[in-house]
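debug: dumping io for the single-chain case to check the tokenizer round-trip. Nothing else runs in this session.
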Amino acid sequence: AGSAEPAVAPAVAAALAADADLATSTADFALQAAIAEHRPDLHTALSFNPLLYPDLRQWFETTGKGSAQAA
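debug: decoded output
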């Protein structure tokens, strides 16, 4: 039984360090998912990302978590 901290996935680490500019522009689906899960403060910025993967866009639309409107 080690006492080391568990490794943080690279996408999660990037999400924790992300800003609104990155959330609005990243094409990395793993990073988009990590931002959605770990950074509710960036939901609005992420919802305006034109490269958002379809399932995440639908999640924003059905939950109202982001403020982007369907085109």
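debug: round-trip ok. The chain has five helices and no strands.
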